[in-house]
Amino acid sequence: MKNLRDILPGKVSTDAEELFCYGFDASSMEGPACAVVRPENSDDVSKASAFAFEHNISLIPRGAGTGMTSGAVPVKESVILSLESMNRIVEIDEKNLIAVVEPGVVNSQFQKALEQRGLFYPPDPASMDFCTLGGNVAENAGGPRAIKYGVTKDYVLGLEVILPDGKALITGVKTHKGVVGYDITKLMVGSEGTLATITKIFFKILPLPEEIMTLLCIFNDLDMAAEAVTKITGSKIIPRTLEFMDRETILAVESYKSIGLPKDAAALLLIETDGQPNSVSKDTEKIGAICTSLGAKVSVADDVFSRKRLWDARKAISPALYRISPSKINEDIVVPRSKIPEMLGLLRNIGQKFNVKIVNFGHAGDGNIHVNIMTDKNNVEEYQRAESAVKDIFEATLKLGGTISGEHGIGLTKAKYLSMELSPLSISLMKDIKKVFDPRGIMNPGKIFV
Ligand SMILES: Cc1cc2nc3c(=O)[nH]c(=O)nc-3n(C[C@H](O)[C@H](O)[C@H](O)COP(=O)(O)OP(=O)(O)OC[C@H]3O[C@@H](n4cnc5c(N)ncnc54)[C@H](O)[C@@H]3O)c2cc1C
User: Three-class SS string for the chain?
Assistant: First the structure.
C-alpha cells in the first residue's frame, strides 16, 4: 500500500486494529480489509478510486457501519473508503428548501441543524444518531416517519458521485423538478456502494411541522393491535408514525432500559400525528377512538420529555434484543398493510414449525415488519433451523404480495434470496448496469448478487 500512502499522505491506515474494526458492521459479519482510507474531499475519493481501479483492488465505500445486511463488510481483501471525515453540511438554502451535504454527516446532526432554522428532513432511521446520510442514500433508508413522508429516495434531488475509475459525475438537479435524460440519481439511491461512491448529496427539505402529538396504545391482544393498524390506515388518516412492538420486544426493552412500558401487554403501537394544531388534535382523537374500540388503553405523551422517553424505548429495541439471545437473524419484510394480521399469524406458525423464537416489531404503518429470529450462532443445529425459517418467511411474504427488504437492502446476507423476488431478466439487466458503471467489478464485490 506504499503507493496509496504517497497519493493520500496521512489519510491511509494499515494498522491491524483498524483493519479489524473496519472489517465489521452491525450485521456482526466480518471480512478482510487491507487498508482504511479516510478521504477529506471528493478529490481524495477520486485519487483512491483511480488507484484501486488501476491495481484492480476492491473498494468499499463505508459510512458508520450500521448496515444490517453486511453491505460494508469486505468479502475479499479490500480498501475501505471511510467517508466519516467528509461530514460538512455545505449549504442550507432556506429560500429554495434545498440542502447540500457531504456523505459523512450523521443523520441526527443534519436534523438538528435544520430544526434550528425551522426546517425538516423527515427520513429518521432508528440508527439516526450514528448512521451517515451517505449510508442512508446508498441503502435508501427509511424510518418511522416513512408512512407519511416517504423514504430517503423521496428527498434526493441530485448527487455528486465518483465512478470506480476516479471520474466525478454530477447527477440530477438542484431544483425541485427535473426530467432530463435517464434518472441516474434514483439508480444510485439504494445501490449499496456497488456502482460509485457518493461524495455530495442535494436534498429537498421541508418546513418543520407546527404541532406533534404522540399516542401510546397498549393492547392485550396482538391481533387487535394488527387490526388497529389496518383500521387506522383505512380510515384515511395518515399519521406521521405508526410503530409496532410485540410482547417479547416490550419485555426486552424494559429489561434493557426500564422505561415504564407495561410488561403484561401483548403489543403496543406508538403513533404520532403532525401538522396544523387543529388537524393534529382531530386526527389524534380519531386514532385514539379506533384503538379504544379495539380494546386498547390509550395515553397521550403531550410534552417533549415523555415523547422522548417513548422514542428512546423504540430506539433501544435493537440492542435490547441481545438480552434474549446472543445472536439474531434480522429480516425487514414488507407486506401490504392490510395483510399485517395474516403475516403475524404466519410468523407465529413458522416459529412453531422450526422451534425458534421470533420477535417482531417495526414500521407497521408501512407494512414493514422487523422479524428477528433469536438464536445462538454457536449452536449450529439451532442456527440452521433459524436459517431455514428465513426461507419460509420470505416465501410467505412474497405470497402475500410483499417484498423481502423494506429498507435494509440486500448486501451480502440476502444475496442468495434475490432470485426469490426478482426474475432472471431483472437480475441480468441489473448485472449489465453494474458492468457499465464498474467494468472491472471493483466496487463492493459480492453484494446484492451472488
Ligand atoms: C440499531 C439500528 C437501527 C436501525 N434502524 C434502521 C431504520 O429504522 N431504517 C433503516 O432504513 N435502516 C436502519 N438501520 C440500518 C442502517 O442504519 C442503515 O442501513 C443506514 O442507512 C446505514 O448507514 P451507514 O452510514 O451506517 O452505512 P454503512 O453501514 O457504512 O454502509 C451501508 C452500505 O452503504 C454503502 N455506502 C455507505 N456510504 C456510502 C457512500 N458515501 N457512497 C456509496 N456507498 C456508500 C456501503 O458500501 C454499504 O453497502 C438500523 C441499524 C441499526 C444498527
Answer: CHHHHHHCCCCEECCHHHHHHCCECCCCCECCEEEEECCCCHHHHHHHHHHHHHHCCEEEEECCCCCCCCCCCCCCCEEEEEHHHCCCEEEEECCCCEEEECCCCEHHHHHHHHHCCCEECCCCCCCCCCCEHHHHHHHCCCCCCHHHHCCHHHHEEEEEEECCCCCEEEEECCCCCCCCCCCHHHHHCCCCCCCCEEEEEEEECEECCCEEEEEEEEECCHHHHHHHHHHHHHCCCCCCEEEEEEHHHHHHHHHHHCCCCCCCCCEEEEEEEEECHHHHHHHHHHHHHHHHHCCCEEEEECCHHHHHHHHHHHHCHHHHHCCCCCEEEEEEEECCHHHHHHHHHHHHHHHHHHCCEEEEEEEHHHCEEEEEEEECCCCHHHHHHHHHHHHHHHHHHHHCCCECECCCCCCCCCHHHHHHHCCHHHHHHHHHHHHHHCCCCCECCCCCCC
